[in-house]
């Protein structure tokens, strides 16, 4: 069943099976046509020999002479090859077999144990004379031998040809299938964000080699364009962060020097806006650095349970001030994954801050760590308004905010940063319904 499903999915294998079927059909058609022709010729030869044997008997002679002639032929002729029988009107039977006529059919029986009849039947002629009935029959042994010969040809020609064709075709199809699979996996990796994925060095000059080369060229151009865009984003964020910080410092100094009043309040608002702009550029820069692979050599064993305790301890005072309940659901022992503890902690902190920012006061926030097969999963659940299912993919984009969240503090980069950290660790990020509220889960692969 597995092979059948693989054949149905693989174009090269389907083509191989089709070619093998065509080869088998052509071979069988050729052998079948030759067999029909030769079998017809053999039957015609038997009928011609039968007519000559019948004509060689002197049917104009007297019954006694004909009986003598048939008896002479019968003594020297093997009944498996030719049967001669004369049934006289007086009831006498002369020949090398006994014959019984039943309408248009003639049946033969042996006259002695050492004179066996043909096992393959006979083709016969019957001539009624004034003195009796003359029967001459030719055994179908040559036709049966021809059938056996073609059966042997079928077994030792068609079947090996089909098997050899299938083996060679399957080998070629498997090679092509592997190459197609390699191209497909490369495209999947590119679609998943791994722009460094390549099919590999060009082998041969066939269509698949050209397709692989084009995929590599496309990936290289896309990678170069993405890197250039990322670099521009990083440069802009880096270059503008310092001037914005200086503007913030200047506004703080202006705020201190201005007396209380409308102008002082405007300076305070301008300072807050400058701080938010600095936070946005800082978050953009951090996301670009994470996506660029910053800190790859810092990857190591990280105990998710320990990180969860640290984050809970850090945010517990703020949760108490809001009247929220911050709960931990941790397994016993260590839950290790391979990663960067600082980045994982930041992702967890972002999720807790989002839950506190968008949820109502007095809600419940649960940080949960669990083992998941060979890996582990980390989730943060709240009892807030949640995120509509059709919006869950969009909130992972940079600077995207729900319509109802535009009146709350934030810059639309919190979940985008979490998504970048999850991708950095090869973890799957899932947003689900906590009924009520939102549950965000990061599934880490095995350590």
TrEMBL record:
What general EC class does the enzyme of this chain belong to? transferase
The record ties this protein, via PROSITE patterns, to: HAMP, HIS_KIN
Q: Where are the transmembrane segments?
A: 16-38, 150-173
Q: Where is the Histidine kinase domain?
A: 235-447
- Taking every annotated instance into account, which residue ranges of this chain make up the domain HAMP? 174-227
UniProt catalytic activity? ATP + protein L-histidine = ADP + protein N-phospho-L-histidine
Its Enzyme Commission number(s) read 2.7.13.3
Molecular function via GO: kinase activity
Query: Mind telling me which Pfam families this protein's record contains?
Result: HAMP, HATPase_c, HisKA
- Write out the entry's keywords from A to Z: Kinase, Membrane, Phosphoprotein, Transferase, Transmembrane, Transmembrane helix, Two-component regulatory system
Q: Which domain of life is it from?
A: Bacteria
**InterPro entries registered for this protein in UniProt:** HAMP_dom, HATPase_dom, His_kinase_dom, HisK_dim/P_dom, TCS_sensor_his_kinase
This protein is called histidine kinase
């Amino acid at each position: 069943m597995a092979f059948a499903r693989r054949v149905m999915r693989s174009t090269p294998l389907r083509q191989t099976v089709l070619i093998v079927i065509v080869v088998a059909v052509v071979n069988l058609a050729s052998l079948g046509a030759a067999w029909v022709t030769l079998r017809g010729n053999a039957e015609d030869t038997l009928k011609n020999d039968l007519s000559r044997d019948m004509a060689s008997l002197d049917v104009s002679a007297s019954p006694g002479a004909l009986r003598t002639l048939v008896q002479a032929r019968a003594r020297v002729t093997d009944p498996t090859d030719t049967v001669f029988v004369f049934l006289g009107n007086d009831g006498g039977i002369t020949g090398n077999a006994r014959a019984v006529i039943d309408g248009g059919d003639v049946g033969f029986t042996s006259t002695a144990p050492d004179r066996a009849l043909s096992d393959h039947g006979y083709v016969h002629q019957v001539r009624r004379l004034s003195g009796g009935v003359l029967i001459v029959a030719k055994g179908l042994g040559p036709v049966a031998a021809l059938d056996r010969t073609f059966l042997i040809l079928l077994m030792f020609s068609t079947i090996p040809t089909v098997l050899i064709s299938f083996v060679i075709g399957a080998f070629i199809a498997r090679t092509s299938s592997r190459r197609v699979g390699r191209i497909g996996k490369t495209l999947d990796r590119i679609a998943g964000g791994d722009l460094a994925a390549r099919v590999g060095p060009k082998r041969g000059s066939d269509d698949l080699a050209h397709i692989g080369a084009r995929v590599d060229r496309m990936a290289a151009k896309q990678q170069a364009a993405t890197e250039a865009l990322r670099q521009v984003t990083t440069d802009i964020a880096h270059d503008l962060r310092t001037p914005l910080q200086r503007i913030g410092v200047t506004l703080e100094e202006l705020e201190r020097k201005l007396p209380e009043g409308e102008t002082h309040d405007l300076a305070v608002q301008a300072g807050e806006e400058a701080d938010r702009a600095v936070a946005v550029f800082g978050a953009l820069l951090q996301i670009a650095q994470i996506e660029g692979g910053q800190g790859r050599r810092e990857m190591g064993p990280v105990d998710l349970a320990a990180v969860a305790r640290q984050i809970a301890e850090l945010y517990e005072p703020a949760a108490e001030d809001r009247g929220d309940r911050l709960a931990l659901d941790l397994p016993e022992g260590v839950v290790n994954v391979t990663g960067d503890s600082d980045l994982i902690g930041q992702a967890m902190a972002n999720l807790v801050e989002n839950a506190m920012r968008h949820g109502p006061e007095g809600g419940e926030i649960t940080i949960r760590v669990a083992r998941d097969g060979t890996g582990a999963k980390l989730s943060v659940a709240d009892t807030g308004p949640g995120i509509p299912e059709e919006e869950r993919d969009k909130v992972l984009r940079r600077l995207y905010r729900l319509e109802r969240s535009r009146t709350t503090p934030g810059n639309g980069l919190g979940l985008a940063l979490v998504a970048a950290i999850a991708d950095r660790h090869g973890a799957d990020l899932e947003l689900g319904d906590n009924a009520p509220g939102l549950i965000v889960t990061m599934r880490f692969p095995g350590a």
